[in-house]
Amino acid sequence: MNKDQLYSFQEAMIYSHKLSQISKALWKSVEKDWQNWIKDYGLNINEHHILWIAHHLEGASISDIAKFGVMHVSTAFNFSKKLEEQGYLTFSKKEDDKRNTYICLTPKGEELLLQTLNTYDPSKFGVFSASMPIKELFGRFPEFPELMSIIRNLYGDDFMSIFNKLEEKIEASLDDQPASPVIAAEEIASSHS
Amino acid sequence: MNKDQLYSFQEAMIYSHKLSQISKALWKSVEKDWQNWIKDYGLNINEHHILWIAHHLEGASISDIAKFGVMHVSTAFNFSKKLEEQGYLTFSKKEDDKRNTYICLTPKGEELLLQTLNTYDPSKFGVFSASMPIKELFGRFPEFPELMSIIRNLYGDDFMSIFNKLEEKIEASLDDQPASPVIAAEEIASSHS
């Protein structure tokens, strides 16, 4: 195969189908567990994602929400409006940017998000429990460099910044607490399917 | 950290959130491109997935469709019924298994699936184009061993068999054709975003 012939149709078909099947299987699992996690708070995944992003970015425009939440702009707007009506966030202008509207969580919105985070149980996420054998084998969670490269090519550099921002924010917020709890192996083992 | 302490809450939170974000981003991209691909055939993704699975398994039960299509049993049943009403498949019993109902494509269903496959253009799938730099760099498409292990832990060994079955079937059906077309680098380059 010379340099101009990068792949056969057959290879393309097999790879593309495999990746579609993988993506669907992963997301359907995450979606189910995410819904179960937040259902008692009267939120759907999009609403929870909006609260999460607005909290982590410390004020987010509708296009930030749409981009980092991987949702349509109209979805981002409609659910943000609904959250505003319930008093969880406000739409406002920034001091240094009068053109765009920013979403900021109200104390009630911050409180709700915090409540959901306090009931977060990693072992109830199938993809998390299913990653534990890798963590046990290699001593760390997988980092998926190839997938991250694919997502970077798809969504751009800016999209990737959410991963660092979330990490920093989670580290900062947990450092404020007296001690980070460490979960024992038995607890995980009992939750393995 | 001793053996009983496998992860901190902070690590769990960061990893779990990262994986959720990755899963959503990948699937939303695949979903959009898949919809675009088949929209002219009056099919939605679930219906196309059902035709595909029934074709590849050469007869599939509703629970096969639900499992390999990662959809609820009721979704699998309702969309299969709709496809039956349109004459694309039939429900029938197998000679060696009179208890279960199997779905088989009709010639009209096979024809429709074939039409969609003939208009499949890998470069129109964002995740595919976004994988090309990896293919160029390493000479092969990524295989995602860690993800495959996570999916195996989540869905079981049986679920993984779909990957081999699809691969065999695609190879067999393309081998029937006179020559597998090879796509040139320029075509891909022009479709890169």
From TrEMBL, chains A, B:
GO MF terms held by the record: peptidase activity
Cell membrane recorded as keyword: no
Keyword field contains Hydrolase: yes
Keywords assigned: DNA-binding, Hydrolase, Protease, Transcription, Transcription regulation
HTH marR-type domain: residues covered: 12-156
PROSITE patterns per the UniProt record, alphabetical: HTH_MARR_1, HTH_MARR_2
Signal peptide: none
Record-level GO BP terms: proteolysis
Protein name: MarR family protease production transcriptional regulator HPr
UniProt organism field: Fictibacillus halophilus
